[in-house]
Amino acid sequence: MPNLDDMDQPGVKRDLMELKAELKAEIAEVKAELKAEIAEVKAELKAEILASEHRLVEKMRDMQSEILRGFEAFARGNFARLHAFDARITGAGVEIAAANMRIEALEERVLNLETRPPR
User: Fold this and answer.
1) CA 111: distance to chain centroid?
2) What is the pTM of this model?
3) For the chain, what are the domain ranges?
4) Is 81 exposed, middle or buried (0-12, 13-18, 19+ CB in 10 A)?
5) Helix/strand/coil (H, E, C) string of 34-99?
6) Taking 70 as the threshold, does the pLDDT of residue 16 lie above it?
7) Is the pLDDT of residue 90 over 70?
């Protein structure tokens, strides 16, 4: 064990100062590395969040399109019913055409259900 009286010697003080400077330099280097890694992780997170946002928007558009197609098919059947009601008032000849329109609308809706890709 070094003698405590030797601590006041100029060589020991110089060694301690050099060690202190080395430690400060290493700490500064570690800080810089950590800052760089944190910046990299932040950039990766931002990129992933942006990609997730784009995927979410695309899914929402797909859902909106699917809902609108369903409304359109439903509306076509209702339009045929209303047309048939008007035809009953004006004459029975148009009633068959209206029934055919309703059947076509139902067939199209069934076809859309059958050809929809599985989830």
Assistant:
1) 30
2) 0.48
3) 8-115
4) middle
5) HHHHHHHHHHHHHHHHHHHHHHHHHHHHHHHHHHHHHHHHHHHHHHHHHHHHHHHHHCHHHHHHHH
6) yes
7) no
Q: Give CA 71 to chain center in angstroms.
A: 26
**C-alpha to C-alpha distances, 28 to 40, 42, 48, nearest whole angstrom:** 18, 21, 30
CA-CA distance, 41 to 47, in Å (whole number)?
10
Tell me if residue 105 falls in helix, strand or coil.
Answer: helix
- Kind and range of the H or E element at 31? helix 10-90
| Average pLDDT rounded to a whole number, residues 1-30 | 80
Kindly give the interhelix angle for 10-90 and 95-115, rounded to the nearest 10 degrees. 160
> Which pLDDT score is estimated for 61?
92
pLDDT over 60 (residue 36): yes
Cβ(105)–Cβ(81) under 8 Å?
no
pLDDT of residue 24: 95
